[in-house]
Structure formats: structure tokens, C-alpha cells
TrEMBL record:
Matching InterPro entries: AAA+_ATPase (IPR003593), ABC_branched_ATPase_LivF/BraG (IPR030660), ABC_transporter-like_ATP-bd (IPR003439), ABC_transporter-like_CS (IPR017871), BCAA_Transport_ATP-bd_LivF (IPR052156), P-loop_NTPase (IPR027417)
Example of a GO biological process term: L-amino acid transport
Record-annotated ABC transporter domain positions: 5-238
Keyword Transport belongs to the record: yes
Pfam families noted in UniProt: ABC_tran
Protein name as catalogued: High-affinity branched-chain amino acid transport ATP-binding protein BraG
Similarity remark: Belongs to the ABC transporter superfamily.
SUPFAM superfamilies for this protein: P-loop containing nucleoside triphosphate hydrolases
Gene that encodes it: braG
Gene Ontology MF annotations: ATP binding; ATP hydrolysis activity; branched-chain amino acid transmembrane transporter activity
């Protein structure tokens, strides 16, 4: 079995409003999968359906051979799925170090936690410099780094990233995407990346899915998607 995550004919709703229609996708262990699409296409809803914040009304979410469709979010996190939500949502009053500690709240392996804290500071040296400062004092890019580092402190097997580039300067975005690649390559963390910035997302992903109006309309390797005329026109501005 290589499938880490699979969505089978998933339909998700907000009350009576249907946001996802028969979504099928799969993620293999060790992959970086990108999901691209316009504003409101259903990308965030897909991530929220994976982590249980929105429960699929019909269809199935299967993680490591176990159905998690109706599992509460806290149990899903305990299985090794961690989300960095859109808008980052760090704790502004807590210091950088305390934010990172919060990420490890479900763990009790002190040595492992210390090791991962060191690894976070190695990935993001700026966070080490600012470890005693309140999270709210950091710049937008630094807060995004903190949100990712905090998620990594949970030692996830599958990391869900919702629009990590949002509102950030291109140089900072590049830095963050380089680190996402590094975490995937070094720590073997499987990554499910949702992005409106298709140019960037398709450059770091192995495979990608394109979503329109709650439906997956295309899926392929990122190289092939980048060469696809439809994708070029609609998402790459070419
Ligand atoms: P964005 O990049 O803007 O976040 P998205 O692709 O992530 O877009 P979703 O946020 O998943 O899209 O939204 C999918 C659809 O569900 C949209 O039509 C949106 O209006 C609707 N929607 C999202 N959240 C809610 C909610 N809490 N209540 C009702 N409808 C919602």
C-alpha cells in the first residue's frame, strides 16, 4: 500500500450549499500534491474535509487504510494529519517559543520535542532570533513560518497547507516554498498544498489537481499540468 490518503466521491456541504461534488483524489506517501483553482473553487473545503472540520456528507476519506470520514478533528490530528490554515492563526500573545511548544501539546517524548524544536530553528533561523518575542510582533512572512514550524512540532505524517503564499512578498514566498520542499525531502513529510498561486505550486509539487466549482477537472504530474494549454491560459497567465 502506497496510498496515504484517498478521497472517494466526496460531497461536502455548508448547510444546504454544496461546496464539493464527487471529489476523488489520492496522495501517496512522500508526495507533494498541489491543489489549484480560483477563489471559491472549493480548495479550502477539501482540506477541511480531510481534517474533519467539515464532514463529507457522502463519500469517504481514507487515511492509511482507515476510514476517517466521520472522525472528529482532534482524533484526526492524533493520527498524524496537521493543517496550517489560511490566515496562519498563530497565538499573537504567546512568544515564538511558546507557539512552538503549543504545536507539540499532544506529544510527551521530551527528547523528540527538543530535537524538532532545534530542527524548526534550523529551518527558520529568524524564528530562533525571535524566540522570546510575541508571535503578534512578527511580520506576515515570519508568522507564516511560525505557523508551519508549529505544525511541524506535531510531527505530522501529512501536512496540509492552505495558501501559504497569501499576502506575502515574492522573496519570502520563495523562501517558504524552498523550506516546504526541504521538509518533504529531509523529514519525508507528505504535503498537501492548496494554492491560488498556480505558478509556484506546480513548480514544487509532484502531482497536481485542478478544481473548478467544487469539482476536480484535471489531474496529472505537475510538469504535464504546466504544459497543459487549458492550465496555461486559466491559471498561469500565459
Ligand atoms: P479561497 O481561495 O477563496 O479560500 P477556495 O477554493 O478555498 O477559495 P472554499 O473556501 O473551499 O474555496 O469555498 C468553496 C465554496 O464554499 C464557495 O462557494 C464558498 O462561498 C462556500 N463556502 C465556504 N465557506 C463557507 C461557509 N462557512 N458557509 C457557507 N459557504 C461557504
Amino acid at each position: 500500500m502506497t496510498n496515504m490518503l484517498e478521497l472517494k466521491n466526496v460531497n461536502s456541504f455548508y448547510g444546504n450549499i454544496q461546496a464539493l461534488y464527487d471529489v476523488n483524489l489520492h496522495i501517496d506517501r512522500g508526495e507533494i500534491i498541489t491543489l489549484i483553482g480560483a477563489n471559491g473553487a472549493g480548495k479550502s473545503t477539501t482540506l477541511m474535509t480531510v481534517c474533519g472540520v467539515v464532514q463529507a456528507r457522502t463519500g469517504a476519506v481514507i487515511y492509511e487504510d482507515e476510514e476517517i470520514t466521520k472522525m472528529p478533528p482532534n482524533k484526526i490530528v492524533a493520527q498524524g494529519i496537521c493543517q496550517v490554515p489560511e490566515g496562519r492563526l498563530i497565538f499573537p500573545e504567546l512568544t515564538v517559543q511558546e507557539n512552538l511548544d503549543m504545536g507539540a501539546f499532544m506529544r510527551s517524548d521530551k527528547a523528540g520535542i527538543a530535537r524538532d524544536m532545534d530542527y524548526s530553528f534550523e529551518l527558520f533561523p529568524i524564528l530562533a532570533e525571535r524566540r522570546k518575542q510575541p508571535g503578534g510582533n512578527l511580520s506576515g512572512g515570519e508568522q507564516q513560518m511560525l505557523a508551519i514550524a508549529r505544525a511541524l512540532m506535531a510531527k505530522p505524517k501529512l501536512l496540509l497547507l492552505d495558501e501559504p503564499s497569501m499576502g506575502l512578498a515574492p522573496l519570502v514566498v520563495k523562501q517558504i516554498f524552498d523550506i516546504i520542499k526541504k521538509v518533504n525531502a529531509e523529514a519525508g513529510t507528505t504535503i498537501f498544498l492548496v494554492e491560488q498561486n498556480a505558478n509556484l505550486a506546480l513548480k514544487i509539487g509532484h502531482r497536481g489537481y485542478v478544481m473548478e466549482n467544487g469539482r476536480i477537472v484535471l489531474s496529472d504530474t505537475c510538469d504535464k499540468l504546466m504544459a497543459n494549454e487549458q492550465v496555461k491560459k486559466a491559471y498561469l497567465g500565459l
